[in-house]
Amino acid sequence: MKKIKIIANPNAGRESALTKVLQLVKLLSKDKYQIILQFTHEEKDSTKFAMNDDGEDLVVCCGGDGTVNGVVNGLYRSKRRKPLAILQCGTVNDFANSIKLPTNINSFYKMIKNGKTLDVDLGQANDRVFVNVAAGGLLTEIAYTTSEDKKQVLGSMAYYIDGAKELLKGEMFKPENLLNIKIKSEDLEKEEKVSVFIIANSPSVGGFKRMAPAAEVSDGYLDVIFIKGMEFFDIPEFVRALLNGNHVDHNKVIYLKTKDIEITSDKDVVVDLDGERAGRLPMRFKILEKALTVLIV
């Protein structure tokens, strides 16, 4: 008999998480699974719950990207290689979407029963890990400024629309808003002025499904994107390229794959990990190859 620990954010995804969790518990109970159900109420609860060893055979995470990040950090710190099943309930769910995890509860339960797994990479940023993305710059503020009402109505499209609006406004590309950074990796060492940097483990970032089009979750590399400043009249063309996933060839974009990169700045630059504020530059980012086992369809 399997013991399953469910870690859920009851407020995620317009409160759909609670409904999905109750449906899942009902299905698991019919098949006599032992269930440990834990709801998060404070920021670090997901990490704490995942770190604790309750004798579970499987951890189920129900929430958005931030909840997934907390659970993954807890599992990584505990050094327990427990498989993780991600029941996506948040607004964006970039990582879950990138590996095509089911949203339907019956399909999700079937995935648990089948038990098929995939070992995926994690990114490491100083002493924390991330499953999907690390980022810095003005564009990352959208995660905090997009209104709850808009997310309730539009879901992931709220970030997508606000992101496109911010790009078209052009404020992030103005010289006074650029970040003066130093980049050091095995293939690149230089100073550059950029509006935003993105370090991705999957193609999908912030609802843009082809932000890092060459990224793969198990290829042993981080995909790094630096977007430089540009003139206002160049922005519409850049946004079109971004929506099509062709922006990596734009002359205002630096795109590279690396296993290890250090970024420093003379400004106070906040770094987000999976959409949650997690520190400031300087920061070193490394790939942790096949460090997490996830259930897949």
UniProtKB/TrEMBL annotation:
Residues 1-129 form the DAGKc domain. GO terms for cellular component: plasma membrane. It is an enzyme of class 2 (transferase). Its cofactor is Mg(2+). SUPFAM superfamilies: NAD kinase/diacylglycerol kinase-like. GO terms for molecular function: ATP binding; ATP-dependent diacylglycerol kinase activity; metal ion binding. Its EC number is 2.7.1.-. One of its GO terms (biological process) is phospholipid biosynthetic process. Keywords: ATP-binding, Kinase, Lipid biosynthesis, Lipid metabolism, Magnesium, Metal-binding, Nucleotide-binding, Phospholipid biosynthesis, Phospholipid metabolism, Transferase. InterPro entries: ATP-NAD_kinase_N, Diacylglycerol/lipid_kinase, Diacylglycerol_kinase_cat_dom, Lipid_Phosphate_FormReg, NAD/diacylglycerol_kinase_sf, YegS/DAGK_C. NCBIfam families: YegS/Rv2252/BmrU family lipid kinase. Belongs to the diacylglycerol/lipid kinase family. PANTHER family: LIPID KINASE YEGS (PTHR12358:SF106), SPHINGOSINE KINASE (PTHR12358). This is Lipid kinase, YegS/Rv2252/BmrU family. It comes from Peptoniphilus lacrimalis 315-B.
